[in-house]
Amino acid sequence: MSGSLGRAAAALLRWGRGGGLWSPGVRTAGSGAGGGGGSGSTEHLDALVKKDKVVVFLKGTPEQPQCGFSNAVVQILRLHGVRDYAAYNVLDDPDLRQGIKDYSNWPTIPQVYLNGEFVGGCDILLQMHQNGDLVEELKKLGVRSALLGEDKDQDSK
Amino acid sequence: MLRGQLVRQLVSMAGRVCLFRSSAGSGPVGPVEAAIRAKLEQALSPEVLELRNESGGHAVPRGSETHFRVAVVSSRFEGLSPLQRHRLVHAALAEELAGPVHALAIQARTPAQWKENPQLDTSPPCLGGSKKTRETP
């Protein structure tokens, strides 16, 4: 069983789309600008990134990513069994798309926030996944990675 | 006469091969790629710099210079977190990133790290970007 799960995980990470394996409790919130400022304002984004432990800004949605790099972020979170995260689709909102780049001082999408803190994009999340840092960071958030349930002696590539 | 022609052909072919070999991607090196290379060399004095124009794999016109992957190997990265390393690369390429470059995949390694795994990875396949219609299943 754990062997096949490992293979499935590897396949997912080879940029497959594991659509429908399970649906996370994802808040694909429209970035609706309630309160002061538009959807790209500092105040609004400050609130968004702090509202949930895991927040990602994507092109597309977790169910239907529209960018390979955004999809990679979705797949990595899925591998770790992170079900409860907020995902914001920048393609829906040009103000959000530019605003988050200014707010993070980061020129590209996707963007990942853990506990209100900017972590990086797809490359960094992938690196954290590969070297075990992501498991640790999730643990700090009180999220137990699904990968901890696998055979601990299994070499990670 | 024939030999002269053959030599000219071989020389021009060799020239094209050299041009292709200078970039890890296919096709000649465009101005954006050249600028990226020059700026990273100046900013980070890399020991290794591998740059690939990946625009061909995305929903953009042929000949575009919008999507790149770069591996930068520099001792300047010692002691810096991945985030700090990436920010250094972004700073060097601020103009390009504010302009034509739409996506930049970065592998920022110290020389020792590069030795363990000296390869430019491949990026995930394009999923259509903003041009993908919502109706597709």
UniProtKB/TrEMBL annotation, chain B:
Pfam families found in the cross-reference section: BolA (PF01722)
Chain intervals for the UniProt region annotation (Disordered): 112-137
One Gene Ontology cellular component annotation? mitochondrion
InterPro entries per record: BolA, BolA-like_sf, BolA/IbaG_stress_morph_reg
Q: Which PANTHER family match?
A: BOLA TRANSCRIPTION REGULATOR, BOLA-LIKE PROTEIN 1
The Swiss-Prot or TrEMBL record describes its family as follows:
Belongs to the BolA/IbaG family.
Q: What does this protein do?
A: Acts as a mitochondrial iron-sulfur (Fe-S) cluster assembly factor that facilitates (Fe-S) cluster insertion into a subset of mitochondrial proteins. Probably acts together with the monothiol glutaredoxin GLRX5. May protect cells against oxidative stress.
The UniProt subunit note reads as follows:
Interacts with GLRX5.
**This protein is called what?**
BolA-like protein 1
- Provide the organism lineage as a comma list: Eukaryota, Metazoa, Chordata, Craniata, Vertebrata
